[in-house]
Amino acid sequence: MPELPEAEAIRLPVIRFFSDGIVESIKRGNNKKIWIGENEYRLEELFLFTVRRTGKVLIFDWRITKEKPAVLLISRLGMSGTWLIQHLRDPLPDHCHLVISFKDSAHRLVYRDPRRFGRLEWAFEEECSVILASQGPDILKIPADDWYREARRSSRTIRSLLLDQKISSGIGNIYASEILFAAGLSPFRTGKSLSKRESYRILDAARQILESAIRSGGSTIHSFQTSLGENGRYQDRHTVYGRAGKPCLQCSTPIQSVREASRTLFYCPVCQKRQLRRKEKTLREALTAVQ
Ligand SMILES: [Zn+2]
């Protein structure tokens, strides 16, 4: 499932190839499940001003002139949705739901989604914030104190807080495991047990890991490819995700995996000890010493 770095690995080449490109034609498939709403917009003669991203959501900004916005296309990638940049001479891939051709371009832009959990939706600029209202700020932009405040209010695990797109958006299963290992915190800790310093450590780790994953074109676990049709490279740098039973890169203890809320979580039981347990142990040792 594409997370923030994978969405970015799709977005950046699309901007490089097609920003300022004028649409020649648009062909829409008939799968109704992919589309939210009944509206149809003619993109012909409009140009792609830019593609924005918030969390895992891509927003294509189509305009009449630079100052005159026309319509947005909001794209949620779901489990297997992706945008591909294709040479016109290449055959269209299977499971393709939207094809956009540009004037004077040897390439077209194709939305492909084999599992069809992705969603496409037309919207005007003023509707966009309402449509995305249930989604929290992008994890790379959320002020550290806001995230800490949300976490402190919750007795859920810090892993489920990182996955909660209403608090901050962009992180999924892969990066939640990687971030908590880098922060040296047990994924079973609760939000309300976090100190301010620990919550800053989580956000710092999130920024470093996500930025590095963006530079590597994301992670390819099953089938993810960037919009250029390339595999990501960040999977080679995973420290815990997908490494159950293999030695921890820091302490050689076997990495453990457990299922939580139908998703597998990976962690090192030594490098990510529960803080509370350690405190309790210290307390117990202190008591023994007194006796
Ligand atoms: Zn370890």
From TrEMBL:
Its EC number is 3.2.2.23, 4.2.99.18. Keywords: DNA damage, DNA repair, DNA-binding, Glycosidase, Hydrolase, Lyase, Metal-binding, Multifunctional enzyme, Zinc, Zinc-finger. The keyword DNA damage applies. One of its GO terms (biological process) is base-excision repair. Gene3D superfamilies: 1.10.8.50, MutM-like, N-terminal. Residues 239-273 form the FPG-type domain. GO terms for molecular function: 8-oxo-7,8-dihydroguanine DNA N-glycosylase activity; class I DNA-(apurinic or apyrimidinic site) endonuclease activity; damaged DNA binding; zinc ion binding. Pfam families: Fapy_DNA_glyco (PF01149), H2TH (PF06831), zf-FPG_IleRS (PF06827). It catalyses: 2'-deoxyribonucleotide-(2'-deoxyribose 5'-phosphate)-2'-deoxyribonucleotide-DNA = a 3'-end 2'-deoxyribonucleotide-(2,3-dehydro-2,3-deoxyribose 5'-phosphate)-DNA + a 5'-end 5'-phospho-2'-deoxyribonucleoside-DNA + H(+); Hydrolysis of DNA containing ring-opened 7-methylguanine residues, releasing 2,6-diamino-4-hydroxy-5-(N-methyl)formamidopyrimidine. Its cofactor is Zn(2+). SUPFAM superfamilies: Glucocorticoid receptor-like (DNA-binding domain), N-terminal domain of MutM-like DNA repair proteins, S13-like H2TH domain. PROSITE patterns: FPG_CAT, ZF_FPG_1, ZF_FPG_2. SMART domains: Fapy_DNA_glyco, H2TH. Transmembrane segments: none annotated. Residues 2-118 form the Formamidopyrimidine-DNA glycosylase catalytic domain. Monomer. Belongs to the FPG family. This is Formamidopyrimidine-DNA glycosylase.
